[in-house]
């Protein structure tokens, strides 16, 4: 009989043991003994605790916070229901209580962060934290509002704390602003000595050096005032796909801008023809290319269009050929005209000897005999040579009696035979 009851006894023993375990009290909080502990020390104490233990810590700190919130509520009620010196005493008591509550909120937040990091759900705690945060003052009661404001302003966990945070934030930004300026100047000196880099790439490196340092400074400044920079970066990274889709045209221009800086089809100051726009390149950003036309119009061309079109760099080479055509009449002396052109070209100081100029009879046109004149000059002297030679050849032709014909049409009238009569 006893053997038959052994399984039942074992089951009852296990059941009672399980019930006793479930009924056991949760672990007592170990960090609430010193409510004034610094957040750094508190974080170190919380680090080895498990999720279950951190839940007890959160309950303990919530209880302390509730006790302080109750004390503030009692003082608020007393200040609104009493008069005279009793009311003033309660109003003077409130700033200290609120400062203590803010300190508890800061520690409570540290506990909740550790609890969430270990896999806990701090949702209910966060709601309670938000509910008891802030200052609840009677707006119509000027005295109460003034005491609340001045109390917060002079509180270590209020105005003083935020003032120090603001000073720290501005100081970090100013420090990195100075560092960015110094680094930009140093990088500029180094980059300017590099002969293999284009002006576009040099300007890009200078600007990006400063901007990257300022961005790093902003992130560090935000971190010093308690902003969770890692979470912000993670959020930006998570939305990168959506941003890339929404800004696909901008990213395409960005990629094209990088290609322009790497392959250097033109540089700042070059005269170019791109997508029907002709002018001088003023600047190239990661999004667009700024061109100043020869009639002084500022045109911004998207880099995607620049890289996707045929690019003509007018001043990309150090030398350039000047193409001229001179026409003389059919009755004029061709040899004399050619010798005049050759002499004018040879006497011009800006015409290069190498490559040698080409002056040849080229075409028997409808109204003229045309010579081609193709001297070479430096790119910067192109317009000067074009204008000077054209003017000089015209003057020499006029002095030598050589005509420069213009398009004309000769009409020959053939008389009708004598026996023909016009129709009536």
Commentary on this structure:
The protein is of the alpha+beta class. It has 4 domains: 23-156, no CATH class; 161-238, no CATH class; 248-313, SH3 type barrels, CATH 2.30.30; 319-399, Alpha-Beta Plaits (2-Layer Sandwich). Helices cover 58% and strands 12% of the residues. The protein is built from 14 helices and 10 strands. It has a 5-stranded antiparallel β-sheet with strand order 4-3-2-1-5. Strand 2 and strand 3 form a beta hairpin. Helix 7 (159-192) packs antiparallel against helix 8 (199-224). The chain is rod-shaped, with a radius of gyration of 44 Å. Residues 20-24 have low confidence and may be disordered.
How do the helices and strands line up, and which of them pair or pack?
Blueprint lengths: L1 H22 L15 H8 L4 H31 L2 H34 L5 H10 L9 H12 L5 H34 L6 H26 L4 H10 L1 H7 L1 H16 L7 E4 L2 E8 L3 E6 L4 E5 H6 L2 E3 L5 E3 L2 E5 L5 H14 L10 E7 L4 E6 L1 E3 L3 H18 L25
Antiparallel strand pairs: 1-2, 1-5, 2-3, 3-4, 6-10, 7-9, 8-9
Helix pairs in contact: 2-4, 3-4, 3-5, 4-6, 7-8, 13-14
């Amino acid at each position: 009989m006893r053997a038959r009851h052994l399984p039942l006894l074992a089951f009852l023993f296990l059941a009672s043991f399980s019930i006793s375990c479930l009924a056991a009290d949760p672990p007592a909080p170990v960090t609430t003994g010193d409510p004034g502990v610094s957040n750094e020390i508190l974080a170190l104490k919380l680090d080895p605790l498990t999720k279950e233990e951190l839940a007890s810590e959160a309950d303990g700190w919530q209880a302390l916070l509730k006790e302080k919130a109750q004390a503030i509520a009692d003082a608020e009620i007393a200040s609104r229901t009493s008069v005279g010196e009793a009311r003033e005493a309660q109003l003077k008591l409130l700033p200290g209580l609120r400062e203590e509550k803010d300190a508890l909120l800061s520690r409570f937040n540290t506990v909740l962060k550790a609890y969430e990091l270990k896999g806990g759900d701090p949702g209910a705690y966060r709601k309670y934290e938000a509910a008891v945060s802030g200052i609840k003052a009677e707006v119509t009661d000027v005295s109460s509002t003034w005491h609340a404001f001045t109390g917060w302003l002079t509180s270590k966990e209020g105005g003083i704390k935020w003032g120090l945070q603001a000073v720290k934030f501005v100081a970090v930004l100013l420090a990195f602003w100075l560092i960015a300026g110094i680094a930009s100047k140093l990088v500029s000196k180094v980059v300017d000595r590099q002969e293999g880099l284009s002006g576009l790439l040099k300007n890009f490196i200078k600007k990006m050096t400063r901007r990257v340092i300022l961005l790093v400074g902003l992130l560090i400044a935000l971190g010093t005032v308690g902003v969770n920079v890692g979470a912000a970066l993670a959020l930006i990274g998570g939305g990168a796909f959506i941003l890339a889709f929404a800004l696909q045209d901008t990213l395409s221009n960005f990629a094209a801008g990088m290609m322009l800086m790497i392959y250097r089809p033109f540089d700042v100051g070059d005269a170019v023809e791109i997508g029907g726009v002709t002018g001088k390149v003023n600047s190239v950003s990661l999004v667009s290319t700024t061109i100043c036309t020869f009639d002084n119009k500022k045109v911004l061309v998207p880099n995607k269009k620049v890289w996707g079109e045929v690019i003509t760099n007018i001043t990309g080479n150090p030398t350039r050929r000047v193409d001229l055509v001179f026409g003389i009449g059919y009755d004029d002396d061709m040899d004399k005209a050619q010798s005049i052109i050759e002499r004018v070209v040879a006497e011009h100081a800006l015409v290069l000897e190498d490559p040698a100029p080409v002056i040849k009879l080229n075409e028997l046109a409808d109204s003229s005999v045309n010579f081609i004149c193709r001297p070479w000059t430096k790119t910067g002297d192109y317009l000067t040579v074009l204008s000077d030679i054209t003017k000089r050849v015209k003057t020499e032709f006029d002095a030598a009696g050589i005509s420069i014909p213009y398009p004309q049409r000769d009409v020959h009238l053939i008389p009708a035979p004598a026996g023909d009569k016009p129709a009536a």
